[in-house]
Amino acid sequence: TAYTDSTSCMLITGGPPTHMRGHGLLQELERYTDNDFPKIAEAVSKRHWTATRTEEMPFIMHRAFSSMLTGRPGPVHIEIPMDVQAEAAEVTLHDLDQRIPVGKVFPDPEAVRRAAEVLREAKRPIIVIGGGVITGEAHQEVLALAETWKTPVVTTWNGKGGFPEDHALFAGSVGQTGTLCGNKMASSSDVILAVGCRFTDWSSSSYAKGVTFSIPPGRLIHIDIDPHEIGKNYPVA
Question: Where is the Thiamine pyrophosphate enzyme central domain (predicted)?
Fold first, then answer.
């Protein structure tokens, strides 16, 4: 679940010796191409590397950490063949801080202005927070937003803990395991501000209209670090 939950982790596996690929060794899948295992990992990882020499490891590790921790977090996979595992080499490792991009991603100012206009017109707005709020450490920003606009907040399964549940604006959780209050408020809202939420079938009650969300006619403002998720399951305002 590391990929779907946006959890940063590194999987290091062995592999057949580089000079024996294609022989169908115990550690090899070679029906379609030699050493097919990395293809299995591709679907559930952000990036894959195969080391062919020990000297490559620092470069691979730096890139793996950068990919794993940059943008939307996720798992990475490194394969180290058995003969490479047995090698030794003198290498230099740089500080990780020198290999990871710094700074934060900021939205288009025009998009922010339009979102604010939609919120101003709302009669029954609600904020839906997902796991991205926790991963991005955006707790205080969400709290400030809710208190400024006096807007109730609900959480998805992965968003639990992203907003204080003893706060007067906390309205419960949404989805198949959500609360009656949370689902009712979300489904009757005319504007939904989603932060770090992917709108999975679990958090959207299998997309049954009116159970958790009513989009449309409800209008959606979607904030997420991964552009792939915005507008994927529900149209945005």
Answer: 112-236
